Amino acid sequence: MSIWSQTKELAAATPNERNRYVDFLRAVSILVVVTGHWLVVALYYRDGSLTPGNLMSVRPATQWLTWIFQVMPIFFIVGGYANAVSQESARRRGVGYAGWLGARLHRLVTPLLALILGWGALAATLYFLGVSGDVTRLASRTALIPIWFLAIYIAVVILAPATYIAWQRWGFTSFWAFVALAALGDVAFFAADLKWIGWSNYLWVWLAVHHLGYAWRDGRMGSPARLIIYSAFGFLALLLLMVTGPYPLAMVGSPDGTLSNTTPPKITLLALGIFQFGLLLAIESPMRRMLSGLRLWAATVLVNSMIMTLYLWHLTVMVIIVALAYLADGFGLGLDPGSLEWWLTRPIWIAFLYAVLIPVTFLLAPLERRGRTAHAPVPAAARQVGGAILICLGVALLALFGFGSSPLPGLDIAAFVAVIAGCGFSGLLPGIK
Q1: Residue 431 within any structural domain of the chain
Q2: Which of 281, 305, 312, 344 is the most exposed, having the fewest neighbouring CB atoms within 10 Å of its CB?
Q3: Into how many domains does the chain fold?
Q4: Cβ of 280: how many Cβ atoms within 10 Å?
Q5: CA-CA distance, 295 to 409, in Å (whole number)?
């Protein structure tokens, strides 16, 4: 039986009470991120030299596109909804925090571990082949960009039971508390020049966005008309922050190399999330009717069954393709980024990368779908949290610096070891309980 036939059977058995729009938004948001990453890469090959670049830096007029392609707020909102549902289910079944956390970490970390092991092995191979550490660092940093998300999302998941209790007890007051902390983080970052406090917004901004998923789950977001008003306020807030504040236009990266809305996160991401989410939630009812059809829902189920694998490996696939093109005398990389010819070839570029990524994803996705053994012992909650913190630390360092030429000797090795040790400590390595 084909994968599509199996998926349609699984989709047909979906309970009617499931909110299929949540899964649809998760799938679409990840596909938008993947496509956006491939689109903004602006590589230029000439006379045997490959110049890496970013479309937003090469063509600053394109920075407005990031208001469309920056959809991580949607993914965190969807995550909030899903974490609320899973906690409710765990409570009904009498599953405690350790059991709940173990299941969530297993789904997130297993595909991540495969990527880290793969790049660790590749980096070691390149080292012994005499490849420059700077080359390895550039390639690995590019490929490992997606893992920054897991470093913070795992932390949000660890805190989810506590934040969900806060939501159930205080409702939107708890949301506004996180918003206030995020705003104070920006004030410290810009006005007081306390950059280290601003980095705490990796928690406050994303916890606030995640909270909106709780509000959605509880039906607290209001009617479509009210959602459109929320969206309009989010858009106006975003414009005001751009015009009157120190915030840049681009919602992804740092095109001018000096300031970023994402590193660390700023309250602009909150405004963007409300703007996007208000519009998307306003059309929930017609979208849920569309998703009642088998074909669209089955496609959604298929993407969600391998979503982390697809997301984590998409830039690795691109790096490999670019390396092969470079070795082929820059084949396909000689167009001036942002030129008419360059834009006309983008659909071909993106379609080709999907054609390579899809079989890779099918090959590796079984790791993601493999659940914990039903009777496997569940490590203590403290042990899982400690291991997860190690994983987050190692992942954050690898996302920042990659493998190869590190700012400190052996930092990449230490980060790699931290991820592996964290997985072992949390009981996420095969054979370790």
Answers
A1: no
A2: 344
A3: 1
A4: 21
A5: 52
